Amino acid sequence: MTNESDVDKSSAARSAENLGSEPVCVSSDISQKPGGEAPGLSPRPNCNPPAFGRGSGAEIRAYESRVHVGREGHRGRLREKFLRGGLAGFLDYEVIELLLALGTPRRDCREPARAALKTFKSFRGVLEAPPHELQKIRGIGPRNVFGIKLIHEVSRRFLKDRMMSRPVCPSSRAVFDYLSHSLRDQRKELFKVLFLDAKNRVIEEKTLFEGTVNSSAVYPREVIEDALRTRATGLIFVHNHPSGDPEPSSCDREITRDLVFAAGLLQIKVLDHIVIGNNRYFSFADHGLIEEYGFQFLRVQRAGSGG
Asked: Over the stretch 244-289, which tens digit does the pLDDT of each residue have?
């Protein structure tokens, strides 16, 4: 005679044995046909968790396994999509989701990724958000922040290494790509100098000044001393506008002209001065101003020599 305990054990055993062969639960973000059937999949009447206090241990484990398989299936599709074509075709929240999953690979990161994008307005905003602000998002903890910040810093290191190993002139865009991450969201102005060798490779990068950039704050003498110390033959100046508008002020133009003149006295060439704003920039070289200041210097030099 079979008692209830034997029936429960037999049912639990069958649930565990059939777990590997059962189709996985359809996730809520897959469009479904009328009647609840997803395209290409059989309907699943037991996608919901067992009622509290009524499911056997095997049934609960079976449900948890189906949820895990569903997450892994979604994340696996994202990984395959990335390996096939990079980030082309990815939505911003999907990229953020993959970054969050670096910290918590067994958790569903879709909703935290969407919430982060909504809070910080853009993909760039999420990458550059302070860790304590990121952790205010429900579902984002220290491990998730690690994944985001790791990728952000790796990208910055890559851009720096690429800059250090190849000529940077005449591409103002390469300089912008390299320094925009560190400058565009600063709340104060930073004035940087890139010292270049004869092949226009970066020898050294230096922050010359922090604060409001004006003619009384930027000393050409300091720039020239560092240029002589590094044996640089070329210079690129870069500073940011916290307002987000990269249009140079009259003071920016005056400083650039003075620096071109000071460098010209020692036959050091100024290649560019780039002003970085909100995801855009102004290049003095691209607008012909560096060349114009160079001609002005030659005219002044000739006038001074009586030629």
From this structure: 899 999 999 999 999 999 999 999 999 999 999 988 999 999 999 9
Which tokens is 186 given? 């600063």
Of 128, 146, 165, the last residue of a domain is: 165
Nearest residue to 235 (alpha-carbon basis) of 222, 254, 245: 222
| 144 and 211 fall within a common domain | no
Q: Shortest CA distance to 272 belongs to which of 258, 286, 262?
A: 286
Of 276, 64, 25, give the one whose Cα is nearest residue 173: 276
CA atoms of 120 and 113, how far apart (whole Å) = 11
**Domain boundary pick from 165, 199, 214:** 165
Global confidence as pTM: 0.56
| CATH code of residue 253 | 3.40.140.10
Listed residue (307, 223, 301) closest to 269, CA to CA: 223
Tell whether 172 is covered by a domain: yes
| 250-265 vs 220-230: helix crossing angle, rounded to 10 | 40
Range of the domain at 215: 168-305
Residues 6 or more apart whose Cβ sits within 8 Å of residue 208: 191, 192, 193, 218, 222, 223
78 lies in the same domain as 175: no
Whether the bond between 39 and the residue before it is cis, its omega within 30 degrees of 0, is no
